[in-house]
Amino acid sequence: MFLRGKQKQNHHLDPDDGVPSSDQRRRKIQARIFDLKKQIRYSKWWTALFFLISLAAAVNFRFLPPITENIRQFLGASPSPSLISIALIVYAFSALILILGRMNTASVHYRGWSHIGYLSAFYLFFYYSNTLRDNFWTVFIAGLTILSLENYRVWSVCSEAIKNEEKMLTFMDR
Amino acid sequence: MFNNFASKAIVPVALSLTGFVIICSIFLYTSIKGDLMRDTVRQETSLAETVVSATRYTMMTDDRKSLNHIIDTIGAQKGIEHLRIFNKEGVTMFSSNPGELNRVVDKSTAGCIECHSGPEPTVHLGSMELARRFVNAKNHNVLAITTPIYNDAQCSAGNCHFHPAQQNVLGTLDIGLSTTSMDSSLMALRWKMVAFCLMVLILSVGGVSALLRRNLLTPIEQLTNYVKKISKGKLDNEIPKGVNEIETLGQIYLDMAKEKQFAETTLIKIKKTDNTNKGKG
Fold first, then answer.
1. Could you tell me which residues are beta bridge partners of residue B87?
2. What's the rounded Cα separation, in Å, for the pair B111 and B117?
3. Nearest C-alpha of chain B: how many angstroms from A174?
4. Interchain proximity A85–B11, CB inside 8 Å
5. From its phi and psi, is residue A78 left (phi > 0), alpha (psi between -120 and 50) or beta?
6. CA of A141: which chain B residue's CA is closest?
7. How far apart are CA B276 and CA B136, in angstroms?
8. B13, B7 in Cβ contact below 8 A?
9. Nearest-CA residue of chain A relative to B23?
10. What is the radius of gyration, based on Cα positions, of chain B?
């Protein structure tokens, strides 16, 4: 998202500026390297957030107040744990396919944040159906696999792009 | 480390495949465990009902000696950790462990709280709600069922008895079975699944590595050596074979090298001719 905004800005600037000077080009390259490094950092932060949520789920959200009968009546009956598990498997399968598909597009944008939302929702569903203890590892391994693959994708694309940008910088410095 | 062909191809495949297999294995394990638990609870409920039926006559006739004998005999069976009968007030009236007799059970403990959580005790519960798991004083894992002993027409109408017709539950029977056998089966299943996941990981990494080595890495290495050779001017026609794209690349490199050599030779000839002409001039 951040990179897309930057690209739009750059796109608006280029035609008016004419041929950019070597200093401008160097600054643009450095900005691009900074953005790419930022994407790698983002992926690490989101993974750390997932670990924190998992830690809370591992202790069965002990710090949360218990769900009262009134809230249960308001929200209704929870779906059966096997249905939630099947939904989790379908989600994990499609998420992995989508990430593998994105590897071909060489997109540098990190999309792991949406997965944190989905995975937290699964934790909450299992918590609501009182089966989080039995199903914690399924959600945790699913999250670990999906986020690791997404992180690897972002890291490999970004580090390759950073290497190319750095080569360009070295070439300009000659 | 991860910047070469092999790891770029292997890491995503191995990660997604193994991760997904682990997720499915855990799901399978959890559902098998749930099914096993439900079956065990069903069997245990049936056993508890059998004990209640078998002891009903002795209860009706207030034959405490026979009832004690039945409880002791069933409680001594292999796999039965405890068997006790409580009266309406929660006092242990009969038990396979004589030390527990006449003790009052705390109604807020597991096994009692399920019915006694509200102001009025619940009369009917599902079989899974009657079950509880815990580790007993002998450090054995126990799956216990607390089943109510209901009042019926014979009980309330009997001239020897004093239970009023409106009293639904006369007492409870609590039976606990050891889960050692189920736990060991589950542990064996868990190890089998770990082995299965490891095999999938080895097969996926090994398979992808072998295919990559055969179809990509070796031909690229051959092409690199070939290009190095022709860059030194050794123009041979032994282009690396096996993969069409690599063969085409090799042919293009060879043609380029030949053209370069031809151009250099021509240039040298032209220079020589120029020098000769200058010398003559």
1. B171
2. 11
3. 26
4. no
5. beta
6. B23
7. 110
8. no
9. A138
10. 41
- Read off the tokens for B121: 């005790």
SS3 B254: helix
Whether chain A has a CB inside 8 Å of the CB on B194: the answer is no
Q: State pLDDT tens for residues B208-248.
A: 888 888 888 888 888 888 888 888 888 877 888 778 888 89
- Are B22 and A135 inside 8 Å of each other by CB? no
End-to-end CA distance of chain B: 65
Q: B16: which chain A residues are within 8 Å (Cβ-Cβ)?
A: 96, 99-100, 145, 149
Query: Do the chains contact at B27 and A88, CB–CB below 8 Å?
Result: yes
> Residue ranges per domain, chain B?
5-185, 207-280
pLDDT at A53: 95
d(CA B38, CA B131): 10
Q: Which residues form the domain of A158?
A: 2-173
Mean pLDDT over each residue of chain B, to the nearest integer: 82
Q: Based on the structure, what is the number of domains in chain A?
A: 1
Residues in chain A within 8 Å Cβ distance of B190: none
**What ipTM describes this predicted complex?**
0.73
Q: Which of B11, B23, B24 sits opposite A152 (nearest CB)?
A: B11
pLDDT tens, position by position, B115-138: 666 666 665 555 566 788 888 878
Chain A residues with CB under 8 Å of B34 CB are 81-82, 134
B3 and A152 Cβ atoms separated by less than 8 Å: no
A11-49 as b/e, with b when 16 or more CB fall inside 10 Å?
Answer: eeeeeeeeeeeeeeeeebbeebbebbeebbebbeebbee
Structure tokens at B31: 């559902």
> Chain A contacts of B23, Cβ < 8 Å?
88-89, 92, 138, 141-142, 145
Query: How many Cα atoms are found within 13 Å in the side-chain-facing hemisphere of A152?
Result: 23
Which class does domain B5-185 fall in?
A: alpha beta
Tokens for A94, please give them.
Answer: 């499609």
Within an 8 Å CB–CB cutoff, is residue B79 touching chain A?
no
Place B34 in a pLDDT band, splitting at 50, 70 and 90: confident
Closest B-chain CA to A84: B27
- Determine, for residues B12 and A149 on separate chains, whether the beta-carbon distance falls below 8 Å: yes
What does the pLDDT read at residue A5? 47
